[in-house]
Amino acid sequence: MALSLWPLLLLLLLLSFAVTLAPTGPQSLGPGLSFLKSLLSTLHQASQGSLSRSQFSTFLANISSSFEPGRMGEGPVGEPPPLQPPALRLHDFLVTLRGSPDWEPMLGLLGDLLALLGQEQTPRDFLVHQAGVLGGLVEVLLGALVPGGPPTPTRPPCTRNGPSDCVLAADWLPSLLLLLEGTRWQALVQVQPSVDPTNATGLDGREAAPHFLQGLLGLLTPTGELGSEEALWGGLLRTVGVPLYAAFQEGLLRVTHSLQDEVFSILGQPEPDANGQCQGVLFLTLSVLGNLQQLLLWGVRHNLSWDVQALGFLSGSPPPPPALLHCLSAGVPLPRAPQPSAHISPRQRRAITVEALWAGGAEAQGMLGRALLLSSLPDNCSFWDAFRPEGRRSVLRTIGEYLEQEEEQPTPPGLEPTVNPSSGISKMELLACFSPLLWDLLQREKSVWALQILVQAYLHMPPENLQQLVLSAEREAAQGFLTLMLQGKLQVPPSEEQALGRLTALLLQRYPRLTSQLFIDLSPLIPFLAVSDLMRFPPSLLVNDSVLAAIRDYSPGMRPEQKEALAKRLLAPELFGEVPAWPQELLWAVLPLLPHLPLESFLQLSPHQIQALEDSWPAAGLGPGHARHVLRSLVNQSVQDGEEQVRRLGPLACFLSPEELQSLVPLSDPMGPVERGLLECAANGTLSPEGRVAYELLGVLRSSGGAVLSPQELQVWAPLFPQLGLRFLQELSEPQLRAMLPVLQGASVTPAQAVLLLGRLLPRHDLSLEELCSLHLLLPGLSPQTLQAIPRRVLVGACSCLAPELSRLSACQTAALLQTFRVKDGVKNMGTTGAGPAVCVPGQQPVPTTWPDCLLPLLPLKLLQLDSLALLANRRHYRELPWSEQQAQFLWKKMQVPTNLTLRNLQALGTLAGGMSCEFLQQINSMVDFLEVVHMIYQLPTRVRGSLRACIWAELQRRMAMPEPEWTTLGPELNGLDSKLLLDLPIQLMDRLSNESIMLVVELVQRAPEQLLALTPLHQAALAERALQNLAPKETPLSGEVLETLGPLVGFLGIESTRQIPLQILLSHLSQLQGFCLGETFATELGWLLLQESVLGKPELWSQDEVEQAGRLVFTLSTEAISLIPREALGPETLERLLEKQQSWEQSRVGQLCRGPQLAAKKAALVAGVVRPAAEDLPEPVPNCADVRGTFPAAWSATQIAEMELSDFEDCLTLFAGDPGLGPEELRAAMGKAKQLWGPPRRFRPEQILQLGRLLIGLGDRELQELILVDWGVLSTLGQIDGWSSTQLRVVVSSFLRQSGRHVSHLDFIHLTALGYTLCGLRPEELQHISSWEFSQAALFLGTLHLQCSEEQLEVLAHLLVLPGGFGPISNWGPEIFTEIGTIAAGIPDLALSALLQGQIQGLTPLAISVIPPPKFAVVFSPTQLSSLTSAQAVAVTPEQMAFLSPEQRRAVAWAQHEGKESPEQQGRSTAWGLQDWSRPSWSLVLTISFLGHLL
């Protein structure tokens, strides 16, 4: 039994640390002394069988008695008979040391101890000689506790006078313990009476403390302090503290891991599977009790710092001794930890002073607390049933802090990732397996803080995992959590509102019936629900007054599509009947929904119904069509109270026509109430700044003169600022102009105005950083003069405030800005030797440039080459910059990324990882690793480049065809793959996606339609048809819900699918369709459907109502159909609003990305009734500026423009200059008016030239020569214009060279960029003299233009890039160089193009593909090369190029366009290019789809 008591004794000694660490002695004790003293003074609080402090003293007395034969057999009075000396002799102990490396140190220790006891040696000398051996001996005794023994030592062996950080072999300890088995030693640790050690008497109760204790006190006490208790403990701590603490930590870690394994084998641990389903525990059968224990175990296993005292484990009444301790006391060994997870190497251990050891006390307490918590988890006792509130609060607090830390992980230094994948998996385990338990705790404790953090974690979960979590929880638990969310009044940022709606919708699915009361309770979260989720509520709820009241209360936060969906439900005949019969009470109750009724239904409201809500309409938020219908019933132009009528109309006055305004209240006061109200309409976008009402307002301001307005009064006119032109601005004072700047938006200043304002407002001396930042909106007005006035240090400091405006700079302004930083102390940084005599001194080394961060993404590769080493030395600083495709590829090569780079290190590269090569992807062996890297790429904020995308899917196809794909290794961490990746799937794989996956893509498209528009038309159509297949059976009519769910995908349905839309459903969704990008097929079919009798009918029978219902969808009609619309239906007001709506759409983000057809002919047909005479014998009408604004400049002929009044033309000059539809004759007519206005071209100022824009094409050759072009700002204005004749191109470039006195060889980066399109005015022999170094920089900007150069000119330009100052031989070019040079690649010689490899070909930009001359295109590219085009490149192939291709080449292009899926006309034929056929039905595709199932 004695053998088992040794580890038990030491275990209890260590566990005493965890009971309390608060000092109990005098407050004068130092922290280190108190710590050690408390270790012994609190042993009585441990569980039964542990030693008290006096018992430990008695234990020491027992030891001393072994060496004092004369004192054996005595004991205190009144105690049990004195103990007999153990049958252990010194000789026996020495025998156990025979042959041990510890023989000499232990013998030396014994000798010095005898010398100390015989007072032949001072305590200080003893300590000096034996400190190391004493520490090693303590560590050996502690090692007897630890299962598995101590780790292999790396410290030196202990010797006399040796280092204190040493180790004993301890090979004698097993023999000693066996020897003790045969003795009565165990009796010495029986319970002895409590005695105060400081007043300890002898064993007979009368004598002084044993000589050994006095000697020990003298040994550890500094001179002069004998008898001091504090000195005793302090000396003991200093002597054995270092090895004791280290051994204690090592041992405790191993014990804790052993306990973890033991408890885990008892309790088990639930874990989510690959689908996010929690396995290993059934919540329906397992009580919350079990869940709580498993949660605590999970926390210990994942290093959560549970507050053990708050949980009740360190309270005054701890739970009974754990079963594992009983095992120890019975002699049953603990299970060994197979590999201790932590080992504190002595070489890494810091020197522990008294204070440092005390500092580790909290850590020790935490470690011991975890051990005690673990040992208590398997006990199913009443303690768990009575788990107190403080414990619940502590669990929620710890979980909340953990989740909060996961959300806000700091970026570790070096190549550490910003996100820890394993950490994310742990969080997923917690949420997937313990959410119902956490919900239960929240129900009891009502912690809003913890609720907010938990909901935040749910919002960041992948949708599929969140769905699995909610649907696997008990119904009552899910309902209770939704109630908590409603009570918590959660606040989320706008970016997370949709995720909150998704969570709410999932919880709603756990309700068997959606009632009116539930809708009312849920109303705060209604604005976040998707339309499809909102429609799950029955239509009948709208008859409930409380429901309608809730809608009214929360309608300001609801999205338009939600209101549209609810409004359409009002039209169900069984609810309220026909619209004309709706009573006033109902109209008022549903007022927030009325503006969202389909226009054809809203138009049924009678004047009486409209007038009944007269006071409510102004704030209702009506759109143009609805507002015009209301105005027709409210406005009475025959009465005299016009001003009062306009005042009552409020925002509705924005929809009055100029004629109506003139009749009701003529505009005259620039600060009048009506005028200010209309300006507010312009500010919120209701009133177009280019429209006729805005023109009336501008007339008021011009007639009164801007000088009469104070700077503050002038601010309200900011929305019309671009329409004020240049002359009016010149009349304003500097204070007035400065007052305008804070209220202007970026697009509210034209480039010409920016040049004028920056020139006036920029200080010429002592420009400060604050002054420059205050002018940031005017950065597009940068000119040579203003740039020269800005000190470079100020420019560097202003980088952050100027960054948002950099995208608005012209190419030449960007080049000039970069050139500013290449000049150091008047010397240009000119690159490498051999760049050309004009720019390089032989032997000169490039000088590294310090670039501001905001300019780095704008650098041409040639400049990036110079400074790449400096950049990569600080890559962590640049990993968040929006690098271009070619920059990222270039830097990736420069980094020489090793093939064994981990995912963590890849993530640490940030946006630089977007330059990853295909070769790097291909060498990743594990399928899991490959997919994780793909996931990471799609998570980057930068777009996945086409060649990398093609590589990803080709590599996936290759891996799917391997004999043994690694399906078994796919884990739950792959559940987070972004839906952007699914959206980007090749067409062939998209066909096989699961329904759930498709719905994730549909949701993404609803949320971010611009991502859909980045796909090719073929891809868009395939996705739309696949989504429809998921939502409705084939050849069945499509419901309104299906159309609403499809959202933007509707615009890409094919003919057959479009014809499945019931005409009445189509009519009620016209307003929704107006916001979508419509593919050519759908638009054509929609145009035909609109003319059906049950929709809008024949065009010749249309009235104003039909035109307003059609809106901009009128352009889906054929040109012939549009021309049949009666002139009466297209009045000035209707026509203006229709064209305004189309222009607004074209200028929107989605409209700019939409590849719609050219509408010039259809627009001309629409306005023909206004711009053409009513009869053939009548003269053409002469437009004024209002007429031009009500239509568009290109609608009018050259004759009509020439006959305009000069003032009208000046007022509309900005519109004329910005219309790309003006033909050559119209441009000449408009330019003639401009010369009347400003005089001959030689007198044009730079800002005037900039304002004229495309109108400059209307100048004659001689007039072009008169323009002053020495300013690169003026030159770049002409260089940006596409449409010059070949003669004009020659005139412009010749004039510039003559005026500037430059030779072609002296053209630098700035001027080459400034020439732009006009570069083609140089002859081939002149182009040869351009510096290859300078041109290789300008290629970045010139390559984005469709240059009108001849083949010979393009070949010369391309040849410049292979010269020494350029990029070298084409065969050595990487894909990044082809991307960089853009359309200039069209000039690469035939032989070189035909020799390009797949990676090089995929570097060509789609625009470069399209501009290669068709005959050349057919000659240089083989079918194999054409089949390697990315889908975006293949779609860029023009019909003219296709016409020159052979049948085999055409099939190759079609194969690439369809991403490996044969087009319908190709099916049945096999591919002949030696590539894998993605359309081949094989088991590899089955595996592919199986893989996708794993992902989702």
Describe it.
With 1496 residues, this protein is mainly α. Helices cover 54% and strands 1% of the residues. The strands form two sheets. It has a two-stranded antiparallel ribbon. The protein has a two-stranded antiparallel sheet with strand order 3-4. A hairpin with a 5-residue loop joins strand 1 (271-272) and strand 2. The longest helix has 39 residues, at 229-267. It starts with a helix and ends with a helix. The N terminus and C terminus are likely disordered.
Entry summary:
The chain has 1496 residues and is an all-alpha fold. Helix content is 54%, strand content 1%.
- Individual helix count: 88
Strand element count: 4
* Cross-sheet strand order for the largest sheet: 1-2
Mean pLDDT: 78
The percent of residues in helical segments reads: 40-55%
Secondary structural class: mainly alpha
Shape: globular
Radius of gyration: 42 Å
Give the terminus-to-terminus CA distance: 59 Å
β-strand amount: under 5%
Sheet with most strands: 2 strands, antiparallel
- As residue ranges, the low-confidence spans are 1-86, 145-151, 184-229, 281-290, 315-343, 345-357, 410-421, 829-844, 964-977, 1464-1496
Helices, strands, pairings?
Elements: H1 2-19, H2 31-41, H3 53-66, H4 90-96, H5 103-117, H6 123-143, H7 173-181, H8 211-220, H9 229-267, E1 271-272, E2 278-279, H10 288-301, H11 308-311, H12 323-329, H13 354-359, H14 361-376, H15 382-385, H16 389-407, H17 421-445, H18 448-459, H19 463-472, H20 475-488, H21 497-508, H22 516-522, H23 531-534, H24 545-554, H25 560-570, H26 573-576, H27 584-589, H28 599-602, H29 607-612, H30 624-634, H31 642-649, H32 658-664, H33 673-683, H34 692-704, H35 711-715, H36 727-731, H37 734-740, H38 751-761, H39 769-774, H40 784-788, H41 792-797, H42 799-802, H43 811-822, E3 823-824, E4 827-828, H44 861-872, H45 875-878, H46 885-895, H47 903-908, H48 918-922, H49 927-939, H50 946-960, H51 979-983, H52 987-990, H53 995-1007, H54 1009-1013, H55 1017-1031, H56 1040-1046, H57 1055-1058, H58 1063-1068, H59 1070-1073, H60 1080-1090, H61 1104-1110, H62 1119-1123, H63 1132-1147, H64 1149-1153, H65 1160-1171, H66 1185-1190, H67 1198-1202, H68 1206-1211, H69 1213-1217, H70 1224-1238, H71 1246-1252, H72 1261-1266, H73 1272-1279, H74 1286-1300, H75 1309-1315, H76 1324-1327, ...
Antiparallel strand pairs: 1-2, 3-4
